[in-house]
TrEMBL record:
<feature type="transmembrane region" description="Helical">
    <location>
        <begin position="81"/>
        <end position="102"/>
    </location>
</feature>
<dbReference type="InterPro" id="IPR050640">
    <property type="entry name" value="Bact_2-comp_sensor_kinase"/>
</dbReference>
<feature type="transmembrane region" description="Helical">
    <location>
        <begin position="15"/>
        <end position="36"/>
    </location>
</feature>
<dbReference type="Pfam" id="PF06580">
    <property type="entry name" value="His_kinase"/>
</dbReference>
<keyword id="KW-0418">Kinase</keyword>
<dbReference type="InterPro" id="IPR010559">
    <property type="entry name" value="Sig_transdc_His_kin_internal"/>
</dbReference>
<feature type="transmembrane region" description="Helical">
    <location>
        <begin position="122"/>
        <end position="142"/>
    </location>
</feature>
<keyword id="KW-0808">Transferase</keyword>
<keyword id="KW-0812">Transmembrane</keyword>
<dbReference type="GO" id="GO:0016020">
    <property type="term" value="C:membrane"/>
</dbReference>
<keyword id="KW-0472">Membrane</keyword>
<feature type="domain" description="Signal transduction histidine kinase internal region">
    <location>
        <begin position="169"/>
        <end position="248"/>
    </location>
</feature>
<dbReference type="InterPro" id="IPR036890">
    <property type="entry name" value="HATPase_C_sf"/>
</dbReference>
<protein>
    <submittedName>
        <fullName>Histidine kinase</fullName>
    </submittedName>
</protein>
<dbReference type="GO" id="GO:0000155">
    <property type="term" value="F:phosphorelay sensor kinase activity"/>
</dbReference>
<keyword id="KW-1133">Transmembrane helix</keyword>
Length: 362
C-alpha cells in the first residue's frame, strides 16, 4: 500500500489506490446486493449506494493512512503499534456506523419519503458496528503487515549491502597493507634494525603481524569498540614511525567516556592511513596528525587533522567512498563523513555518528 509509481506514464495508478479501489469495490458488492433484494432499491439508487459505500470505506481508511504517515506509526515496534491500533479500529468502526446511518437516513427520508427519526437512525448499530469492526480490523492489519514486510525487505537489502561494503573495506585495507610498497618499506625498516637493534626489529615484526591479522580476522565485524580501533591505530602508527621516525607524530584528544561505543571497523585507521599517505608522506619535514574524539549534541565526532591539501582534480579514494556508504547504511543516514581543507595548509576528515542507537554501546 505504498505510493510507489511506475514511470510508464503520468496517469499510472499507484498500488495503494489500486488496492483501495479493488478492495472496497468487492466488499461493497454485498451491501449493494442487500439493498437491491431486501430494501427494494432501484438499479440507480443501488448503484449510488454502491458508490457511496466505496467512498466511505476509502475516505475513512485514507484519513487514517494520512494520520499514520504523519505520526510515523509504521516505524513503531509491533507491540506499541498494536496498542494504538485497538482504539483506532474501534473509533473507525464507530465513524463507519455513523456515516452509514446518516446515508441511510438521507435515503429513506429524502428519497423514499418515509418519516424516520434521526436519533433512532443514528443509534442503530447492529449489525453495522460488527461489520465496521471487521472491515477496519482487516484493512489496518493488512496495511501495517504490508509495511512491516516492506521494512523487513528493505532492512535485509541494506544489511546485505552493508555486509558487502564492509567486506570490501576489509579487502581494501588488507590490499593496502599487503601491497608491495607497504611491505617493501616495512620489511626494509625491519631489515635495517635486525643487526642494529634486534629487539626493535622483533617488535616491528610483531606489529606487522598484528596488523595483517587484524585485517584478516576483523573482517566479520561491522562494528568495533573505539578502544579496540585505537589499539589498531596505535600499532599502525608505531610501525610507520619506524619509517618516518620524527617526521610522523600523532597527538590525540579523546573523551574517555566514549571508548566503549562501537564504530565501523577500521574507520579511524582508514583516516589515519589517508593522512599519512596524502599528507605526511608528501611533506619533507613530515608533520603532526591530530586525532580528536568528542561528544557533541548526542553525536560522536571523530576528526583527523593533518598537513596537506585536497587535490580538486583527483577523485576521493575508494576506501573513503566505501566508508561514507557504510555510515549511510549502518546509521540510516543519521551519520556523516566530510573531508575539508583549512586555510593553514591542513586537511580535516570528520566522522559524525549518533549516540542514541541502543546497540552502539557495549
Amino acid at each position: 500500500m505504498n505510493l510507489k509509481k511506475t514511470n510508464t506514464s503520468n496517469t499510472t495508478i499507484s498500488l495503494y489506490w489500486k488496492c483501495q479501489l479493488i478492495g472496497w469495490s468487492i466488499v461493497s458488492i454485498y451491501w449493494a446486493y442487500t439493498v437491491y433484494t431486501r430494501d427494494n432499491y432501484s438499479i440507480f439508487y443501488t448503484f449510488l449506494n454502491y458508490v457511496l459505500d466505496i467512498s466511505i470505506g476509502i475516505f475513512l481508511t485514507h484519513m487514517y493512512r494520512l494520520f499514520a504517515l504523519k505520526a510515523k506509526w509504521s516505524s513503531l515496534p509491533m507491540r506499541q503499534l498494536l496498542i494504538r491500533l485497538v482504539p483506532t479500529i474501534l473509533l473507525l468502526a464507530v465513524l463507519y456506523v455513523l456515516i452509514n446511518n446518516l446515508k441511510w437516513y438521507a435515503y429513506w427520508t429524502l428519497i423514499a419519503g418515509e418519516n424516520k427519526n434521526l436519533l433512532e437512525s443514528i443509534i442503530y448499530w447492529d449489525p453495522i458496528l460488527l461489520t465496521g469492526l471487521r472491515l477496519m480490523s482487516i484493512w489496518l492489519l493488512a496495511y501495517h503487515l504490508y509495511h512491516y514486510y516492506q521494512k523487513e525487505v528493505v532492512t535485509a537489502k541494506e544489511n546485505a549491502q552493508l555486509s558487502i561494503i564492509a567486506k570490501q573495506a576489509q579487502l581494501d585495507n588488507l590490499s593496502a597493507q599487503l601491497n608491495p610498497h607497504f611491505l617493501f618499506n616495512s620489511l626494509n625498516s625491519i631489515k635495517s634494525l635486525v643487526i642494529e637493534n634486534p629487539n626493535v626489529a622483533r617488535r616491528a615484526i610483531d606489529l606487522l603481524s598484528d596488523l595483517l591479522r587484524s585485517s584478516l580476522y576483523e573482517k566479520d565485524k561491522d562494528l568495533i569498540p573505539i578502544k579496540e580501533e585505537l589499539s589498531l591505530v596505535k600499532d599502525y602508527i608505531e610501525l610507520e614511525k619506524m619509517r618516518f621516525e620524527e617526521r610522523l607524530q600523532l597527538k590525540t584528544n579523546i573523551d574517555d567516556d566514549l571508548i566503549n561505543y562501537k564504530i565501523p571497523t577500521l574507520s579511524i585507521q582508514l583516516l589515519i592511513e589517508n593522512a599519512i599517505k596524502h599528507g605526511i608522506d608528501l611533506k619533507i619535514g613530515g608533520g603532526i596528525i591530530f586525532l580528536k574524539i568528542k561528544k557533541k549534541d548526542n553525536n560522536i565526532h571523530i576528526t583527523v587533522e593533518n598537513p596537506g591539501v585536497i587535490n580538486q582534480h583527483k577523485n576521493v579514494g575508494l576506501g573513503l567512498k566505501n566508508l561514507k556508504k557504510r555510515l549511510e547504511i549502518q546509521y540510516k543516514k543519521n551519520a556523516s563523513f566530510c573531508l575539508t581543507a583549512k586555510d593553514n595548509d591542513c586537511v580535516v576528515a570528520e566522522i559524525i555518528i549518533p549516540m542514541h542507537i541502543e546497540d552502539e554501546k557495549i
